[in-house]
Amino acid sequence: MGSYMMVTILDVVISGLLLGGIYAVTAVGLSLQYGVARVLNIAHGEFIMLGAFITYSLYTRFGINPLICFAICGPLVFAVGFILYRTLFTRLRMSSPTPGAFEGNSMLACFGLLFIIQNVAILIWGADIKGYTYLAFPVDLWGARFAANRLVTLGFALAICLVFYLFLANTRLGKAIRAAAQDPDTAGLMGVRINQVLALCFGFGALMAGLGGALISISYKIQPTMGLEYTMIALIVIVLGGLGSIPGSFVGGLVLGLVGSIVTHIEPGLSLVAYYVIFMLLLLIKPTGILGK
Amino acid sequence: MLQIHNINTFYGKAQALYDLSLSVEASEIVALVGSNGAGKTTLLKTLSGLLRPASGRVVFLEKRIDGRPSYAVVEAGISHIPEGRRLFPDMSVRENLEMGAYLQRAWKQKGESLEEIYRLLPVLKAREGQLAGTLSGGEQQMVALGRGLMSKPRLCMIDEPSSGLAPVMVDEIFHIIEGLRDQGIAIFLVEQNVRHTLEIADRAYVIENGRIILAGKSEQLLSEELIRKAYLGL
Question: A176 vs B102: CB contact, 8 Å cut-off?
Fold first, then answer.
C-alpha cells in the first residue's frame, strides 16, 4: 500500500512536470511578446498549433524524427513571428499615439491573426484530431511506468527553458532584450536598435510557441482549434508568475502543470476549472504574481 | 563639435522649442540652465533621437544627426545621461555598466572600460553585483555617469545630475564632471542648480519658454543682473 502510494505520487508529479514544462515553454514565449514587445498575442496558441502540425507533417509524411523537426519548425515559426512584427506590429506601434493604444490595437490585430492562421491550418490539415506514435515504449522509473516520449518531452522542455535563460542572462542580445523590457527608451540611448530587438522578441516568442507545439505533438493529440486553450493557459501562467518576469513564467508554468496533474488525478474533467479558480484567487490576493513585486 | 541650428520641436501640437541654436566645442563644459519646464530636457531628447525636431539642423563632428534614431546618435559619439538616472532596476550595477558598452566596438573593450570606470568611481566596484534599483540616489547617479561613459563618447549630455542629491554628493558629482572635461570629453550639462553649474561651466546658455534668452561665459553670467535676481536670489 505504501509503495503503491509512492508510485501514484511519482506518477502525478512526473505528469505534472511534463505538463508544466510545456506550459513553461509556451508561457515564456508569451511573456517575451507581452512583457517586452508589448503585444498581448491572443494568437499565441495558433503558433503552438503550427509547431505541432509542422512536426506532425514532417514526421508522418517524410519520416523525419520529431526531435530533429525542432531544428526545422523552430526557425520557421520564428521567421513568421519576426516578419509579422517588422511588417504589421512595427507599423501599428508607430501609428499608435500611446503605448496603451498600441496594446489595444495589437491585441485586435492578433484576434484577426488567430482566425487567419486557424483557418489556413484547417484548409491544409483538415479539422480532425490528429496524432502519431513516437517513442511510445514504456520506461520504468522507481516502480512507476512512463511512456518514453513523455520523459523526452519533459527533458526537452526543461532544456529549452534553461538554454533560453542562459541566453538572456549572458549574451549581448539577451541583455539588450532585458534592458528593453525594463525601459525601451533608455535601452535606445545605450545604442540598442529597439525596433529590431522588439521584432526579435516577438520572433523568439513565436519560436518558443513553435517548440512547445512540437513537444505537445509528441505526447498529445492535436487539432487546428487546439490553440485557444493553450493561449488561455499561457495567459494564466504569465499572470501567475508576474507580468514580464521570465523566471516567473517558468516557475508559474511548472506550478500550474503540477496543479493540473493533481486535479486530473482526482477528477479528470476539472483541470481547466482549477486553472481558472487559481487565476481568480491570484487576482484577488496577489495580483502581481508569485515572483512579481 | 556640436552645432545646433534653429531647432523647433513640438509635443503633439504644443511647441516646446523655438528656433533654438547653440554650440558645444571640444574640451569645454557648456551649461544649459533654466527653470522647470523651460525646455531643457526636450532639447536633450531632440538631440538624442527620442524626439524629432520639426525643423532645424543638428551637426556633430561634421555629420547631420537631427531626426536620426537614438542608436545612431550614440554611434556618432554622443552619450545622453538622462534625467532621473533611468537605470535598469532589475539588472546589477555591472550589467547596467555593460549596457552602456552595447555598441559593437565598445562591447569588445568592455572589460577594460569597466576597469577604468571602477578606477574613476571606486564605490561602484564594491556594489558591482547589487541590483541597481536598490542603490542610494548618489550611487545611482554614479552608475548613470559610469554607464554613459562606457560607450567612450566624445560628448556627454548630462541631464540634472544634482537633482535629489545631498549637497556633499552634488559636490562630488560636479567634481567628477570637471574631471571628465579635463580628460578631453566635451560636456553639455543641463541643470537647475544654477550657481553650482556656472562655477564649473566654461560657457552657459539660459533657456526660458523654449528660447535661449542669454548666453555667455560663466563668469559674465554670474554677475549678470537678470541671473542674480531670477536664479541666484540675490
Answer: yes
Domain co-membership, B107 together with B147: yes
Cα separation, B114 vs B72, in Å, equals: 23
- pLDDT per residue over B18-77, tens digit each? 999 999 999 899 999 998 889 999 999 999 999 999 999 999 999 999 999 999 999 999
Interface residues on B facing A, Cβ-Cβ cutoff 8 A:
48-50, 69-71, 74-75, 79-80, 82, 86, 88-91, 95, 98-100, 102-103, 106-107, 147, 151
> Residue A116 domain-assigned?
yes
ipTM, two decimals, is 0.92
Looking at the domain assignment, is residue A255 inside a domain? no
Same domain? For B62 and B162 the reply is: yes
Q: In total, how many domains does chain A have?
A: 1
Query: How many domains does chain B fold into?
Result: 2
DSSP code per residue over B89-143: TTSBHHHHHHHHT-SHHHHHTHHHHHHHHHHH-HHHHHTTTSBGGGS-HHHHHHH
Which residue in B has a C-alpha nearest to residue A182's C-alpha? B88
Taking the C-alpha atoms of residue A187 and residue A192, their distance in angstroms, rounded to an integer, is: 6
Q: Is residue A241 part of a domain?
A: no
Q: Model-level pTM?
A: 0.89
Does residue A30 belong to any structural domain of this protein? Answer: yes
Residue B206: all three cell numbers together = 539660459
